[in-house]
UniProtKB/TrEMBL annotation:
InterPro entries in UniProt: Hexapep, Hexapep_transf_CS, Hexapeptide_acetyltransf, Trimer_LpxA-like_sf
Pfam families: Hexapep (PF00132)
GO cellular component: cytosol
Gene Ontology molecular function, alphabetical: O-acyltransferase activity
Domain of life: Bacteria
Protein source organism: Streptomyces diacarni
Protein name in the entry: Sugar O-acetyltransferase
Presence of keyword Disulfide bond: no
PANTHER family referenced in this protein's UniProt entry, alphabetically: ACETYLTRANSFERASE C18B11.09C-RELATED (PTHR23416:SF23), SIALIC ACID SYNTHASE-RELATED (PTHR23416)
Length: 180
């Protein structure tokens, strides 16, 4: 995770973010119970969640979850399978023809590792996914990551570092990196 501090908890910015989270949660809850064939209702709710209409050729299968929505930038012909989560406060960009498997998670905000700062600050960074990337089922993309064009992220992978273009990344094993 990027060590960049985004905001202090209990600030005016944090309160505004928390209000947006409540609104986005309410909208996605409504979206996720619409009948499958209610295309007009889904289009209206996606526009309210994202702040603009879905680009041409974008397919999103509910249930769909976001905590902010207004900082999720989708290019044309993006495919998002069911049960995906986008915690997009710091921004997520998905390039053209990106395909995302079910239960993938994108997280742009977290807390600092330092125990003294953990409860007082949010940290993180934007996620940038280039064109024609395939992200497998259950993959987790962490704050500040860029994924290069034509890359593949294997199912269940946890991506904490940038992914070069035209490469395959795998793995989800946790390991101890430091102690305090």
């Amino acid at each position: 995770m990027s060590g960049d501090r985004l905001m202090r908890i209990h600030s005016a910015e944090f309160r505004a973010m928390a209000e947006r989270v409540l609104r986005a949660t309410e909208l996605t809850s409504r979206l996720n119970v619409l009948p499958f064939e209610d295309d007009a209702g889904k289009a209206d709710l996606f526009e309210r969640i994202l702040g603009s209409p879905l680009p041409a050729g974008v397919t999103i299968y509910p249930p769909f979850f976001t905590d902010h929505g207004l900082r999720l930038d989708l290019a044309e012909r993006v495919f998002i399978n069911q049960n995906c989560t986008f915690l997009d406060y710091a921004g997520i960009r998905l390039g053209e023809r990106v395909m995302i498997g079910p239960k993938a998670t994108f997280i742009t905000v977290g807390h600092p590792v330092d125990p003294q700062e953990r409860r007082g600050w949010l940290s993180g960074g934007p996620i940038d996914v280039a064109e024609n990337v395939w992200i497998g089922a259950g993959a987790t993309i962490l704050p500040g990551v860029s994924i290069g064009r034509d890359a593949v992220v294997a199912a269940g992978a946890v991506v904490a570092d940038d992914v070069p273009a035209a490469s395959l990344v795998t793995g989800g094993k946790a390991s101890v990196h430091r102690r305090w």
